[in-house]
Structure formats: structure tokens, C-alpha cells
Amino acid sequence: MAKPMTIMLAIVALVFGGLYGFNVFRGVMIKGFLASMANPPQTVSVTTAGYQEWRPKLTAVGTFRAVNGADLSLEASGIVEKIHFQSGQQVEAGQLLLELRKDTDLAKLASQKAAAELAGINLRRDQAQLKIHAASQATVDTDQANLKSAEADVAQQEAVIAQKTLRAPFAGRLGIRAVDLGQYIGAGTNIVTLQALDPIYLDFTLPQQALNGIEVGQSIDAGVDAFPNKKFTGKIVAINSKVDQASRNVQVRASLANADLELKPGMFAQIDIVTGKPERLVTLPQTAIVYAPFGNSVFLVQKAADGKGAGLSAHQTFVRLGSTRGDEVAVLEGVAEGATVVTAGQVKLRNGSPLNISDTQQPPVDPNPKPVDQ
Known about the structure:
This protein is of the alpha+beta class. The chain has helices at about 1-35, 105-130, 135-160, and strands at about 40-50, 50-55, 55-70, 80-85, 90, 95-100, 165, 170-175, 185, 190-205, 220-225, 225-240, 250-255, 270-275, 280-285, 295-305, 310-320, 320-325, 330-335, 340-345, 355.
């Protein structure tokens, strides 16, 4: 019995010893595999955070409109007899522009003037006879009423004739003529547009929270696509007395000088309004920011000991951002002056990732970028 028991115990010991040895071997192999799979250094681009003068500003989009603008038409209908203007002409207030045929109206006016003249003669004759008691007061009163009625008819006919004559209601530049000689036009037909272009208004809207940063007389800068390298300067002349309940925006109007008549009503404009006093803020390229719902962050470059000498590693830190300006963003908290910040390659980083700094030149950071002409 002793010999079989000894053999069995030896076998059990051998089995357990083998299992133990296998576990030790497996642990060594896993440790070596994980060591071989260590996170390799990631190549990134970096920049140095620094202070810049930062002046808050508001941005908006708006539309130009004329100080005075109208599509000119006549209250009367008729045939165009004379045109006294050219398309695109600069005209003065009261300048004659167009006349309709009015021969019949002039003849009727002459008849009514003759009737008024006769009524005046009758009145004067009856007044003289009244003095010698040859006519009654009632006759004189009737004559006076007849004269006033005749004079009213004359004034009415003169108004009808005036309605067939178009004059410029204000000084400005005409558009393209829409009627021709001999054409019959109805009342209200558009003849030509007239726009007063110097100065010119620029209407835009701002959110209600911007009201504490704007005031009448404040300067604005406007840019238009037609003149990409030119800025137009103006001043705020009016702020609407109410905020729109649907959008919670307030309408603002600025006035701009337009002596060269480059700006036209209906043109689209991008507007910058400088507000507040200049501040010194740490700024970074917007590409350095990792935007996330739970908070915005950046990766800082720090020196780290890796056991084989000094190296560089990434350290993620949350930041509080201010306003943006072109390619730049102001950092209010989280990054100090002189810190080295990753600007490209963040997607492959995590805390502690070893880093290599790329020597590739990065695109310039422009606070006022402009599209490149194709």
C-alpha cells in the first residue's frame, strides 16, 4: 500500500508543480508582450502660449439701403410724350424727368380759366351795381360763390396736369429706365428707380446681450465681397427701441460715407464693432483646442522621466475660453504664458503619451483670415 500511495503523491506534486511553472511562465511572457506594446512616441506640432492685446468686438451681417430710395411712378395714366433723363444719371431734387401727353387736359384748363375770368368780371360788375342799389346782395353773393367754384376747378385741373409730370423727389442717382417714348403707361407703373447713395445706411441685427456694448455714435467697420481688400467705416446712427420677441435680436442702423458710390442698396456686408477696452490675454490657435461636451481642453508638453533619460510627454488640461478672432481664441483659464501647447496631432494622444516634436512649418495664425482667390 505504501508504494502506490507514494507514486500517487509524486504524480500529484508533479501536476501541481507543472501548473505553477506554467503560470509563472505565462506571467513573464505577458509582461514582456505588454512591454513590447508600450505606446510609441507620437509626433505632434506645438506652439508657445503668449499674451496678446485683445479688444472685444461684435460681428454681424447686414444689408445696405439708401437713405432715400424709391421706385418712381405717376398717379395718372397716359402716353409718354417726353423723357428728360438718361439711365444712371445723377439728378437734383425737383428736376423734371418725364411728361405724359396732356393736350386734352391743357385745353380743359384753358376753358376753366376762361370761366373763372368771366365769373370774376360778373362779380366786379355786380359789386359796382350794388353800390348804386342796382343789384342785390344775393346776386353779389352768388357771383362770389361762382368765382370760387371756377377757381377751384382751375386748381383741380392744374393738379391733374401736374400728375402727368414726373419730377425727382430728392437728389440721387437714377437706375435703368423702364419705359419708352410713345408707350402707354397706367397709373403706378414703375418708370425708374431713384436712390440717394451718399451717405448710405447699413442695417443689421445683434443679439440682445450686445446692447450694453453698443451706442449711437459708435464706429463700425464693414467689408463687402465686391471690394475684398477694402474696409468701409461708419457710425451707428440708430438702435431700435424694441427687441424682436421671436429672435431676441435688436435692429441697428449705421451710416457710411459713400462719395465714390461703390456701395449699393441691397449689397451684403460683414460688420465688425469694437467694444470695451483692450485686454492682455493668452491666445492660442483654434486648432489647439479639443472641443468636447464635457469641457474644452488642450494638451501641454511636459518633461517626463521614462527610466531611460528625460523625455517629453502630453498632459491634458481643461481650459476656459473667451471670444474668438479669426484663427485665434482667447484662453481665460488653464494655460499660462510660455506653456508649450500641442496644435496638431491631439487625436492620438492621452495623458502621459510620449511625444516627438515635428519640425514641419505650420500655417500662420491669422486674426483676420480672408478666402484665397481661386
